[in-house]
Amino acid sequence: MEPWKRKLRMGMVGGGQGAFIGGVHRIAATLDQQAELVAGCFSRDPENTKLTGEQLYLDPARCYDSYQEMAAAEARLPEDQRIDFVTIVTPNVSHFPIAKAFLKAGFHVVCDKPMTYTLDEAKGLVKLVEDTGLVFVLTHNYTGLPLVRHARELFRSGEVGEIRKVIVEYLQDFLMVPQEKLGCKQAAWRVDPAQSGIGGTMGDVGTHCMNLLEFVTGDPVVELCADKSTFLPDRTLDEDVNALLRLKGGGKGVLCISQACCGEENGLTLRVYATKGAIKWAQENPNYLELYRFGEPRQTLARSQGYLSEAAADATRIPPGHPEGYLEGFANIYVGAIRAIRRYIDGKPLKTEDYQFPSVYDGLRGMQFIYKAVESSDKGSIWVSM
Hints:
There is one protein chain. Helices cover 35% and strands 22% of the residues. It has two domains: 3-142 and 331-365, 3-Layer(aba) Sandwich (Rossmann fold), CATH 3.40.50; 152-318 and 368-385, Dihydrodipicolinate Reductase, domain 2. By secondary structure, it is an alpha/beta fold. The strands form two sheets. The protein has a nine-stranded mixed β-sheet. The chain has helices at residues 21-30, 46-55, 67-76, 95-104, 119-132, 146-156, 185-190, 193-196, 201-217, 310-314, 326-345, 360-378; strands spanning 8-14, 35-41, 85-89, 108-111, 136-138, 163-171, 221-229, 240-247, 252-258, 267-274, 278-282, 288-292, 299-302, 383-385. The N and C termini lie far apart (46 Å).
């Protein structure tokens, strides 16, 4: 059956019992009825995988004990049965080997961020994606929200002028107490260098900040000066980071991230000040975008309005006044991913620059940020080049 006449078949690695983000991906991938989950290896524990598969009503024969077995077995299935793509929702340390196994088996990949465990793995993954030509999707979900996409168009079009200053922050209180000692599975792997990598908060929320900043402004960070802190005893990874940024176009920036700020929930906020205007967007109130022009009244732009860009309209599902947010942002990433995969199957693959989602190159940028921020801080908060 032609790919445009059927749902794409999805597999998943990770996301078993006790996980958080796997369930989010399963909802988002199927929200627009363009894909269905048919196979998975949901845990390193086969019993967890079995139970998860039962709860998701999957064929037990396609609930695998290991990702290696899953990649090989799915590749042996007839083309009209095997998965079209796999979603990776495991701790950072396993992203690269899982992605490598499925890319080499001929499957497209959707991967949660940060993309890899090390910078060298990120570089290797870029080469692998380039060599295979397969679709690789990185789920920086905030880029899927309508008003974030509209903000990007404001800067692409030059409507608000040249960038002078950017302030991006992501503040949480998730790790202000030792959750990893209180039975929180999500905290346990995030504070463990053996699973998370050299960056803690930098990888978990800092990569979102860098991606959002560069996605909206189109102006890459070229230098940074970072200061990282760890407050709780028995932890080694960063919980809090402040950084100064220099942008390619000459603008300056400030990045402030923390998972130890009392009272903060999911405080991702972006402010961009340019020569003709400025914007402010906050993730906890995602359906509105503040737009400022000098000498004029402040404007509050709302989602699902006719005055917004085509890019914002394409990312909108419901009429004004009905909130859209976190899940829909993820779903918009999947809409773009599925469109790109269908084009590949049809023999008309999209160029990476035409993707409507973050790519393997965005994943490499995220890993470069982590490594450069750690380098800067460890050397006494010196300026380093990205």
